[in-house]
Structure formats: C-alpha cells, structure tokens
Amino acid sequence: MRKDSRLSRVLHVLIHLDAFEHPVTSDTLAKMLNTNPVVVRRTMALLRERGYVKSTKGHSGGWSLAKRLDEISLLDIHEALSESSVFAIGLTDEHNECPIEHAVNRTLKDAMNEAEALLLKRFGEIPLSELTVEFKAALANK
Q1: Beta bridge partners of 36
Q2: How far apart are the C-alpha atoms of 61 and 58, rounded to whole Å?
Q3: 3-class DSSP assignment, residue 35
Q4: What is the pLDDT of residues 87-122, one digit of tens each?
Q5: How far apart are the C-alpha atoms of 39 and 47, rounded to whole Å?
Q6: What are the TM regions of this chain, as residue ranges (predicted)?
Q7: Which of 108, 111, 129 is nearest to 119 (CA)?
Q8: What is the CB neighbour count within 10 angstroms for residue 44?
Q9: b/e burial code for range 49-85 (CB count within 10 A of at least 16 → b)
Q10: In this predicted structure, what is the pLDDT of residue 141?
Q11: Residues whose CB falls within 8 Å of the CB of residue 39, separated by 6 or more in sequence, listed in order
C-alpha cells in the first residue's frame, strides 16, 4: 500500500521557506523533493488559497511564507492538502448483505473515527514553529 507523504513533504518545504530570506522557485523546491515543478506548483497553490504562502512572478520570484510558522498548525496544512481520512485503511462493501461485514465495518469505522479525531485534535495543537526547534538546534551546534 502506497503512503501519502504529501503532508510530511510540504512541512519540509515550509520549514525551508522560513529559513530562506528570498522567494524560492518551484524548480528549486522540486529538486529538494525529487519531484516535478508542476507538482510543486499545484501543491503550493492549495496553500496559497488558504493564505499560508504567496508567490511572486518574475526574475527574482518564487514561493515564500505569507504567515509566520507560529500562526500555522499541522491541522491547517493537513486540511489544505487533503479532503480524505488520515488513514489509508478502507472498509469493504463487497458483501452488503452479510451481517459479519456490517459488524466488522461498524467496529472499524468507529475505532478509526475516534483515532482520527484524536490525531486531528493533536495536529491542531502543534504550530509549525515547533518543528523548527530541532532544526535550529542542529544548525547552532555546527
């Protein structure tokens, strides 16, 4: 099963953007992420729509933060990127008439909903600035 690593990758980009003193191009971000600049532009556009980043056109243009990292939570970024559950686990619907399938699905759904609510609550409590603490400490020790 393939993992959705967009949240992790975008958080990585946002921490880098905070460290840069100038806008960063989609090409540069794409090289950092080992992906295509078009993917970067599409993803960053989702964040721009929410007001977390901004883009500037022209020779010295690129992406930069529109808000400070302490004003953005993990939940904010998760919601900007995804409309789906945080879990890749799915329920089956191949045997709609089977009472066992109904019981299994109900139990799994309840447990996953509880776990997702707890995780999203925690995401809302973590500002992105918290992610820079370890990064800044490592830089200071060099």
Answers
A1: none
A2: 5
A3: coil
A4: 767 777 777 788 888 888 888 889 988 999 999 999
A5: 13
A6: none
A7: 111
A8: 23
A9: eeebbebeeeeeebbbbbbebeebbbbbbbebbeeee
A10: 83
A11: 30, 33
